[in-house]
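PROTEIN DESIGN WORKSHEET
SECTION A - STRUCTURE
LENGTH: 92
TOKENS:
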């Protein structure tokens, strides 16, 4: 099979879309910990991190980072699943 740059771009975009669909955990650089569920504090244990749907993760990071510095980052659960046990789903 011959190399197809268009196919490669489409596959990379599909992978990005899959990853960024969520759910997410949120890392706080300010508090050096993961956001817990329902926005109730922080934990250093990834297994205790809250899991957020995309819209809520975007809202949290937008508000926290609105002062000109990056304080919080939304991390796709799919990117770190091997570090969590068991895999969790968003609480809605």
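SECTION B - SEQUENCE
RESIDUE ASSIGNMENT:
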């Amino acid at each position: 099979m011959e190399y197809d740059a268009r196919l490669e771009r489409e596959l990379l975009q599909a992978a990005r879309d899959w990853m960024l669909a969520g759910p997410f955990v949120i890392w706080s650089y300010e508090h050096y910990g993961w956001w817990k569920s329902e926005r109730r504090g922080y934990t250093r244990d990834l297994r205790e991190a809250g899991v957020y749907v995309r819209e809520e993760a975007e809202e949290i990071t937008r508000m926290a980072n609105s002062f000109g510095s990056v304080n919080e980052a939304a991390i796709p659960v799919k990117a770190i699943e091997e570090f969590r046990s068991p895999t969790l789903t968003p609480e809605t």
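SECTION C - NOTES
The radius of gyration is 15 Å.
Residues 22-83 form one domain.
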